[in-house]
């Protein structure tokens, strides 16, 4: 299995010195674990509506062009860095890192509730090959049984 995040992806959101401090006394395994937790967390929110297998694919078959969604890369890094900070000093997480993580969680909740939109591949109907509609019925009213 190839890694979804590359080492060069982190350079946009965190300086190498800070990343090295976060990984101090740990092997690359800790970073991979944080990435896997972040990916699993994001998949859990997107799975009902979007094709998570396609979203977390790094390359198209036989292609050398990177097809990853830049926003998904960014939020995966934000979640992974938050998990790394939590494992080292949960009381000393930088405010901007905590705010970015909260922004990711709010967006994922909107998507999961069907109140938001993401430019991501939708789940396809296996029989027709067309994207499934994401129609959901919901109500804030409590269910009442009116059968007598």
What are its keywords?
5 helices, mainly alpha, 148 residues
Overview of this protein structure:
By secondary structure, this protein is mostly helical. The protein has one domain (about 5-115). It is built from five helices and no strands. Helix 4 crosses helix 5 (about 95-115). The radius of gyration is 19 Å and the shape is globular. The termini are far apart.
SSE arrangement:
Elements: H1 16-22, H2 28-46, H3 52-55, H4 70-88, H5 95-113
Helix pairs in contact: 2-4, 4-5
Helix content: 40-55%
Estimated structural class = mainly alpha
Q: Average pLDDT across residues? A: 80
Count of discrete domains? 1
Supply the number of helical segments: 5
Return residue spans where pLDDT drops below 50 for at least 5 consecutive residues: none
Main β-sheet, in a few words? none
- Give a count of the beta strands, DSSP E runs of length 2 or more: 0
Distance between termini?
A: 57 Å
In a nutshell, what does this entry contain?
This protein is mainly α.
